[in-house]
Each structure stands twice: as structure tokens, then as C-alpha cells.
Design a protein that fits this description.
It is built from no helices and 5 strands. It has one domain: Beta Barrel (Sortase, Chain: A). A hairpin with a 4-residue loop joins strand 4 and strand 5. The model has no long low-confidence stretch (mean pLDDT 88). The chain is an all-beta fold.
Length: 92
């Protein structure tokens, strides 16, 4: 099994497309990413933060033995970035 931090960045458009609604997500929310076979993989948010626009620490690959997705978008009003971190839900 491969472990790592899949980082996906998207624009935060005023017309509510792309990652515009990312700020409404909270810890405990879930979303799905489809694997190469077209099967959904569910991830649950464990951290939401806002960082300086130049802070790249959130895309760090040194996450040990988990499969993680990091979603990133801009907050143009504040000049920051909204970061959502989620772990894969593993079946028992």
C-alpha cells in the first residue's frame, strides 16, 4: 500500500465554482476521491487551517504511514490560503 500526501490546489472563484466552498468544510466532514480503477476512496477531514500565502509546510510528504489528501485554495481578501487535511477511511 502506498502512503503519502496527495495535494490538490484549486481556485476560489467568486461564482462559487472550483474550491470556492472549501471554507465551509469542517473537521469530521468527508469527501471522496476516485482511484485509478474508478473506485471511490473516502477521506475524513482531521484539520482545517489558514496559512500565510507563502507557507508550503502543509504539502509536506513526511507523513509516515497514512494516506492523506490536502486541499488548498486562496483567500484573496486576507492574502492567505485555506488548507483542508483529510485521512483515508480504512476498512477494518
Amino acid at each position: 500500500m502506498n502512503f503519502g500526501n496527495l495535494c490538490i490546489a484549486g481556485h476560489n472563484y467568486a461564482n462559487q465554482t472550483h474550491f470556492a466552498k472549501l471554507s465551509s468544510l469542517t473537521e469530521g466532514d468527508s469527501f471522496q476521491v476516485y482511484d485509478l480503477n474508478g473506485s471511490p476512496v473516502t477521506y475524513t477531514i482531521f484539520e482545517k487551517l489558514e496559512v500565510n500565502a507563502h507557507d508550503t509546510s502543509c504539502i509536506n510528504q513526511d507523513i509516515h504511514d497514512i494516506r492523506q489528501v490536502t486541499l488548498v485554495t486562496c483567500n484573496t481578501i486576507k492574502g492567505t490560503r485555506i488548507v483542508i487535511k483529510a485521512k483515508e477511511n480504512r476498512l477494518p
